[in-house]
Amino acid sequence: MVFSIISRLVNGVKQGVKAGLEGVSDTGSAIVDVVKNTTVTLVKGTGEVVSKGIEVAGSIVKGAIFGVADIGASVIGTIKGIVMGTINGVIEAGGKQDQAVQGAVSQAIYSAKELGLDIGKTAVEAVSGSVEAVKKVGGDAAQATRQAVTAALEAARDIGDETLTAVKDALTISVEGAKDIIETLKK
Fold first, then answer.
1. Considering the entire predicted model, what is its pTM?
2. Which residue has the higher pLDDT, 179 or 27?
3. First-to-final CA distance of the chain
4. Cα–Cα distance, 63 to 52 (Å, whole number)
């Protein structure tokens, strides 16, 4: 049951993003609202899904990334907006911040691997998008940064040591506070 709901969610988001971005010249600006609105509509339509928070957020990100890829837009250029729209939409639909952040950031990393994208850049964009989204809804930005960095590192570790090193390096250089978080996770 959950698998079929999640599968429908991925496909629904993918189609919603494709339709929402059709004819739009600046996908980077439009993506946050398109993903958020698609998320709210789909999640509210399948109410029980919110209890599967991490999977839902991940499915939304995956569907959105593949929707963007299908229309030929720059996926890396939209990662931040996809993650922001996903987190804002999941929270608005009744989901929890930690699950939305973890699912969105992790799936961004996995999808980047699947599409052959720069995973370090994807991690930076995903973490930045999650922090910005949480700030927008009045959440704890420091906690969101920790959750996002941790999720990015866990996903990168699943992929392999080389990916983990690339993600650590990219986050340390580009995300405020990431170096300290990474250091505390080593202990």
1. 0.90
2. 179
3. 40
4. 16
- The single residue listed with the structure tokens 């837009």 is 73
8 Å CB contact between 44 and 12? no
Which residues lie below 8 Å from residue 69, measured CB to CB, with a gap of 6+? 75, 115
Nearest to 121 by CA among 86, 77, 58: 77
**pLDDT number for residue 80:** 95
SS3 62: helix
Long-range contacts from 170-177, C-beta under 8 angstroms, 24+ separation: 170/120, 170/121, 170/123, 170/124, 171/120, 171/123, 171/124, 171/127, 174/124, 174/128, 175/124, 175/127, 175/128, 175/145, 175/149, 176/145, 177/142, 177/145, 177/149
d(CA 87, CA 100): 5
Q: List the domain boundaries for the chain.
A: 2-186
> Of how many residues is the chain composed?
187
Tell me phi and psi for residue 107, to 5 degrees: -65, -30
Q: How far is CA 105 from CA 26, 95, 130, 186, in A?
A: 23, 15, 7, 20
To the nearest whole number, what is the mean pLDDT of the chain? 87
pLDDT per residue as tens digits for the range 45-74 = 665 455 566 688 888 899 999 999 888 888
